[in-house]
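Progress note, sequence design subtask.
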């Protein structure tokens, strides 16, 4: 990935995750099931479920599959008992990794993750070993040209905490995860459409990698993303191909 801009790094990761999600609906179904189990089947009072359903709609996941996943989560239908598990570790060049999984077999999943890491110059860490390097937050990205003052006023009223503008004019809005829905609704009500929005783990600072290290990091990310149980992977790396 050429360049160092934060948006370029986010876009690259988003594109790769979209490609991964596009290969199967399984990950979306797992997320809906877990969200419904954790917070109930009513999307109006379950922000995580609402976000998962929005993603399912964007991916054209059939409504009957969405409804069945919700029912499995709430116990109305029998199904696999999925668990959420998070792994933390390091990759080549000391880059930090957070790997979120949903699985019905934690032994299998940790084995797959450990294998991908060890085979590609990384290692599995302990709980908390890298999470302090990231911020759990709502994140929205806007293309250059959006009125900064108007956006700032609206976002702060909706529960956002930070509005950042990079050197290219790309605007980043950050807030608490619990405020994702209120921020998004404010955007919709005011006809403001971000090019990207999600609840994420945002790196507090980034490590730029290039050359052979950059290639190794990308290979590691590809190997982890290929694991069926992996839902999301977060890294503080910026891969520069220049």
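Output:
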């Amino acid at each position: 990935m050429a360049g160092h801009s934060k948006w370029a790094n986010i876009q690259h990761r988003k594109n790769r995750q979209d490609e991964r999600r596009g290969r199967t609906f399984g990950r979306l179904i797992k997320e809906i099931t877990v969200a419904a189990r954790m917070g109930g089947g009513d999307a109006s009072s379950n922000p995580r479920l609402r976000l998962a359903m929005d993603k399912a709609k964007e991916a054209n996941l059939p409504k009957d599959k969405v409804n069945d996943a919700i029912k499995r989560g709430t116990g109305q239908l029998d199904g696999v008992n999925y668990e959420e598990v998070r792994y933390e570790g390091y990759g080549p060049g000391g880059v930090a990794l957070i790997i979120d999984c949903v699985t019905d077999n934690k032994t299998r999943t940790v084995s797959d993750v450990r294998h991908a890491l060890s085979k590609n110059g990384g290692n599995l860490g302990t709980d908390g070993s890298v999470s302090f390097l990231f911020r759990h937050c709502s994140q929205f990205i806007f293309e250059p040209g959006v009125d900064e003052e108007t956006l700032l006023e609206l976002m702060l009223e909706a529960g956002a905490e930070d509005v950042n503008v990079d050197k290219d004019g790309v605007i980043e809005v950050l807030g608490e995860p619990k405020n994702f829905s209120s921020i998004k609704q404010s955007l919709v009500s005011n006809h403001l459409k971000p090019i990207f929005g999600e609840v994420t783990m945002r790196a507090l600072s980034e490590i730029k990698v290039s050359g052979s290290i950059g290639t190794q990091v990308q290979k590691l990310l590809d190997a982890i993303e290929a694991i069926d149980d992996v839902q999301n992977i977060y890294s503080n790396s910026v891969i520069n191909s220049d």
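Strands lie at 83-90, 96-103, 123-124, 134-142, 160-165, 171-175, 196-203, 207-210, 230-235, 237-240. Work on this subtask will continue into the next period as scheduled.
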